[in-house]
Structures are given as C-alpha cells and as structure tokens.
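Continuing from the previous page...

OK, I double-checked the sequence for Methyltransferase domain-containing protein against my notes and this is the correct one:
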Amino acid sequence: MTGSLDTQAIYSLTHRQIANNEAAQEMMAYLWRDWGGYVGQLSWVTAAQLAAMAEAAGLAPGRAALDLCCGTGGITRHLVATTGATMTGLDYSEPAIEIARRDAAAVPAIRFDHGDARELPYGTAEFDAVISVDSLVIVPDRRQVLAECARVLKAGGRLVFSDEVLTGPVPRDPETQRALAVYGRLFPLTAPGYRRLLVHLGFTEIEIHDRTPMFVAINRRWADSYRRFEESGRKVLGDRLFEDGLAFFDTLHAEGAAGRLGQVLVSATWTGHDGAH
Ligand SMILES: C[S@@+](CC[C@H](N)C(=O)[O-])C[C@H]1O[C@@H](n2cnc3c(N)ncnc32)[C@H](O)[C@@H]1O
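Thanks. Re-ran it with the corrected sequence; updated structure tokens here:
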C-alpha cells in the first residue's frame, strides 16, 4: 500500500497548493479557454465531454449520483448546476474534501465525503448513477472499485467514467516510468480488459468510446500552460513538483501521440444484485 499512500499524499499536497491561488486559477482559465472554460477539472475532460457524461448517466432532478474521486469538487458542483441532480462527491484527499465542502457550502443537493474508492462508505443500492473522471487508473485494485460501484448502484443504475488505458507497449525506461508516476503509479487496463471486467461483474449495455485525440490535445495544452505560467507555477508548486508535473504532461502527450496510452469513455448499466457474480 506504500504506493497508494504516496499518491494520496501528493494529491493532498497539490490540492492544498492550488486551492484559491490566483495564479493557478489564471493558468486554468488559459488551459480550458477553447474547451468550454474551467469548471474545476484537474484532469482531461472538457465541459462538453462532461455534459455527454451527465447525459449518459441520466443525471436529472430527482436522481442521486456519486462523483467518485471528485478531487476538490468543481466537477461535482458543475454537475449539480447543469443537471439538477443530487450529487455526492468522494475523495481520499482530506484537503480536497475540505475545499470541496467550503466551496459548496451554499449549494443545496450536494455533499462531500472523505473515503477510499475501494471501500465506499455507502449502503447497497443508494445511487442512480456513479460518475468518475480520470481517476480509476491510479486506484490499484480496479476489480474491487468497480464491484463497489456495482454495490452502491440501484438496479438499472448507470456507471459512467473516463479513464486512461493502455493502447500499446509503454517504454519501460526509468525516465518514462518515473514521469508517468508523478501523480501516483498508473495501473492502466486496456479497453477490452475493461469490457471483460465489467461483463464479469454483471454490468450490461457496456459502451466504450475512444477519446484519445482530445486527450493528446489536452495534454499538449497542459504542458504548454506549465511553460507559459512557469514563474508563478514554480512559486505555487515549488520547483520539484513543477518540473515533475511538466514531465508528466509532456510524457502523457508523447505516449498518447505515439499510440501507446489513450483515454476512453466507458458507460454501463448495473442490472441488479441478483445477477451479480
Ligand atoms: C486526476 S485527479 C481527478 C479529480 C477529478 N475527478 C477531476 O477530474 O478533476 C484523481 C483524484 O483521485 C483521487 N483518488 C485516487 N485514488 C483514490 C482512492 N483510492 N480513493 C479515493 N480517491 C482517490 C485523488 O485524491 C484525486 O483527487
């Protein structure tokens, strides 16, 4: 578990450093300006892609959904505002949850819980939908996480997530491996691997769409934004995390462009606990 504790620590640090930081907000505005603006995403999802995810998940007034690995809760708030659904956000970064709670204090129909995606603090069949954006790749035991999603979904509930997947042999050299692990060691599945796992767990209506071209473009923009805001970025993050972050986005961009790492949008329906394996 040491690896995952390191991941938790680095996310906690990042969340503390960027929260309410003006320079970081300026960089985010630049990063997302061509793609519907910054809605709180620290990932690779545009506002239009989020709208498509919300639709696939059936988010609407009267529906209850979980935003799994919600970070500082910007996406969760955005989904409440744009769909009228009741949202719960969960993340294992304590600073992220503190920030999320503070920023959503005036928002009805939203709550944030601190917890681990592998052991959800919820009862069986509590949610109409589970959404997760670009996070599952860093959770080591994917089977356990998806089984937990199934457990908390109502029969007919929707699971919708974006995630990074293996599309080729990522180089094993230490430099590439180190750069890719800056925000936590990655445990990428392949798209067929995801399909097999979801079938095995009892999900149906599984659809997997490739979003790699946009993922590549967004990684290029992340790296470009780091360079453009280098002076303030070094102040906010410190030299080490700034340089590691830049190497991370440069490497993701290179691996994505070379066809070795990609991004998928996955949606599936949970048919009910009687059918569970
Ligand atoms: C790349 S960020 C994405 C955050 C958010 N979904 C977004 O798109 O902006 C990944 C998030 O996953 C969280 N995370 C990673 N492993 C987790 C786990 N086992 N349980 C709960 N949260 C986890 C991290 O703390 C971090 O906030």
